[in-house]
Amino acid sequence: MGLVNAVETIVSNLYEEFQKSYEIKCGCQHCKEDIMALVLNRIPPKYTSSEKGQLYIKTLYLNPQLQSDVMRELMRAALVVEHNQNHVVHEGV
């Protein structure tokens, strides 16, 4: 399995939920990765080297407060990316 930051999976899953309730100006893969990178840089990582450890960390994130923290960071990151897109938007191509 190797070394894994289990928070990445959690942020990815919550990003999908976040997208349903927040209209992101650009939904391209680049902007998604920028948003997720900003969130992952602000949330403490939880590394594990086993599936059992990964499951334990995921149970920690069932806590509503932790989910709220991740969603708050997703909102903040989406606003940052929205106002500082790191790519050229092509309209009418």
TrEMBL record:
Top-level taxon of origin: Bacteria
InterPro entries to which the protein is assigned, alphabetical: ComFB
Name of the protein in its database record: Late competence development ComFB family protein
Organism: Paenibacillus alginolyticus
